[in-house]
Each structure stands twice: as C-alpha cells, then as structure tokens.
Amino acid sequence: MPANQHHALPYTISFSATIDAEVEQTILDGLNAYNDAITGYQDRQVLSVVVRDRDSQRVLGGAMGRTSLGLLFLDLFYLPAALRGLGLGSQVLAQFEEEGRRRGCASAVLYTISFQAPEFYERRGWRRFGEIACSPEGTSRVFMSKTL
Q1: CA-to-CA distance for 56 and 52, rounded, in angstroms?
Q2: Closest alpha carbon to 89 in 100, 98, 78, 97
Q3: Quick one: residue 24, left, alpha or beta (phi over 0 = left, psi -120 to 50 = alpha)?
Q4: What is this structure's pTM?
Q5: 19, 58, 99, 108: which could form a disulfide with 72 (CB 3.0–4.6 Å)?
Q6: What span, in angstroms and rounded, lies between the C-alpha atoms of 95 and 146?
Q7: Cα 13 from Cα 145, distance rounded (Å)
Q8: CA 38, 40, 41: angle at the middle one, nearest 5?
Q9: pLDDT 10s digits, 92-118
Q10: Strand, helix or coil at 118?
Q11: pLDDT tens figures, 21-37
C-alpha cells in the first residue's frame, strides 16, 4: 500500500475555537503521566501571587504560573494602570520568584510582548533569550529567563 493511503481508522480529528474542560483535562493528564513516567517524579504545582483591594478583597491583579521539573514558569502577570509604578509589580514578582526558589527551582522562564514589560523584567535580572516577530508590525514576543 502506498505511504499516502491509510486504513480507515476509528478516530476523528476536529477543530475548535474553544477548549472545554474534558479536552483540557485529558491532554493535561496524559502529558503529565507521560512526563512522570519518563522523569520518575512529579513536582508540578500551580502558583499565584495576587493583589487584592484591602477593604473589599476584590482581586485587582497579580501573577499566575507553575513550577515543574525544577523550573518556574511565569505564565500571566497583570496590574491595572492605576497600580503601576507603586512598587507592587516588583513585590509580586519577588514573591513569585521566592516561592519558585522555595520549591527548588533553579531557573525561571516567561514570555512577554515587546509593548508590555520586557524592560521591567530586565531591571529585575531577567535576560532575553529569544524574540519572534508577531502582529502588529514592529511587535515581537520576547522570551526571557532568570537564574534563581
């Protein structure tokens, strides 16, 4: 049989513009089980450092990520404009990094966008290790790491 012909397989492949909980959990559980079998241990944990309004306790911003296989991943970091420049971002980042160290992480990684905050991270010891152009014109994704 030619390489481009296949037996009919009992599977379908579909596209979606959403990710439902079953899809996310199946992929996450499968990948985690594979990684655990290869590495022999499981150390993944989610991590958040949250800024709240003192009176209402409403969440205003913060950082989210995870630790896994000795790496700290900073996935999302946001503070509203009114809270920037007050030192809160530096405090959030410092707490995030410190928790990564406490969990045994030796390095941290993140990506940001050129119009977001690469200089903020660089002033705090992060270094660029890659950049990929994206839209709009003149914009790029900036990949950064830091030794903890």
Answers
A1: 8
A2: 78
A3: alpha
A4: 0.85
A5: 108
A6: 14
A7: 36
A8: 120
A9: 999 999 999 999 999 999 999 999 989
A10: helix
A11: 999 999 988 988 998 89
